[in-house]
Amino acid sequence: MRVVIAEDSVLLRAGVQSLLSDVGIETAAAVSNGDDLLVAIREHRPDLVIADVRMPPTFTDEGLRAALAARKEIPGLPVLVVSQYVEGSYAVDLIAEGTSGVGYLLKERVADVADFLEAVRRVAGGGSAIDPDVVAQMLARSRRDPLDALTARETEVLGLMAQGLSNAAIAKQLVVTQGAVENHISNIFSKLGLEASRDENRRIRAVLTYLDSTAVRA
């Protein structure tokens, strides 16, 4: 696997590069700003992009905008975004066109090596990795009637779905049967007016698209 890293902090950039190298993942380029990120992506066509949201010169959303632009140029390009803070609007922008090959993690999650590497592999493989705190904030921002119709357990299952967990993983975490999880998911899609699918990425996309539309109107 070859990655391009975009992070303005020299120490963090070097740390991530070293961490990936230890498990056999090659860093094709490591840059410090959005413009250089786009150049590196076009040159190296990596298997994954790891980008900070806030980078020079304004330290607002340069990394995210570069990642979005890259995905438009290279449809399906896996992108794992990291941020110091929970910035729900940025997460919505990133996943608005689908969660296949998309991740959004808080930087504190990078400190957990096992979790970070799992997210890297999952996103590079076309899956998704959305930080639980980001999902929780997006759920909290959504206050329209469809979500209010969900039970507490259905809301919990919805949050785990949005993190990219499979039915089996949700069942294990909640200590319930997989059949119970499938029933909850069926009820969720029914109450939200969304068509159920066995494709977990499509389920996540439907959930987050809904959260996007409600957040915009709220």
Automatic annotation (TrEMBL):
Protein's name according to its UniProt entry: Two component transcriptional regulator, LuxR family
Positions of transmembrane segments: none
Tree of life domain: Bacteria
Sites bearing 4-aspartylphosphate, chain numbering: D52
Boundaries of every Response regulatory domain copy: 2-122
Domain HTH luxR-type: 143-208
Organism of origin: Amycolatopsis pretoriensis
Endpoints of the signal sequence: none
Keyword DNA-binding: yes
